[in-house]
Amino acid sequence: MARIPEHIIDRVREAVDIVDVVSRYVSLKKQGKNFIGLCPFHTEKTPSFTVSPDKQIFYCFGCHTGGNVFNFLMKHEKMSFVEAIEKLAGDAGIEIPKYKADEREVSEYDRLYRANQFAADYFFQFLKNHPGQIRDYLSKRGISEKSISDFKIGYVADAWDGLYNEILRQKMSLEPFLRAGLILRSEKDPSRHYDRFRNRLMFPIYNLSGRVIAFGGRTLSSDPNTPKYVNSPESPIYNKGRVCHFRGRLHGFFTTLAKWN
Fold it and tell me: Hey, where are the domains in the chain?
């Protein structure tokens, strides 16, 4: 069948509880806010498999396997991504349309995803090609080259129009970048535009399908009046209260970030 629209995937994800799904295959016991059990993906005698109902993820501290409810079914039942969605949709009574979805709705989502991915690639390549002081700074903070690559960490220069000019150079529509909050329109002169993020390390935020939906930017400025962190605003594809990040090795990565002042 054709690609399942992102909004249908989100509906399925929100309708199912990972604890209910995993407990069909694993005997779980409540421990604090989470549930624990013996990992179904490797042999162990002491439970190291954890399911978080708050974050709707699972993780094994023994074999380091983790992810969301789709990932669990895909690995445990040897399903494809589409098959996992179809099964959970059936369980939740959600019909996956066989007809073509509303073009306006799907195209709006897709335009926003493409805009965020374009920006993520731009930030990542900018850091990759940037002089060594930024990479030295990251190294001193305990962020390795592998982490930079794994998490697609980027950098944006101290300029008002770096990303904006690249969008124009590539002859892309500006509208989705405005909707995603990557580009801002001047209040004094609506014909003028500028970048939201400047002189910042850029950390992409991903949805459960691994698509870039927003960014977090940490300033490299020494100016005390500059906000330390600036995040993307909410958009049709980004709701701050429902976001989870799945890029592997996240526990160690965000533990490192938490040490930053």
Answer: 6-92, 106-258
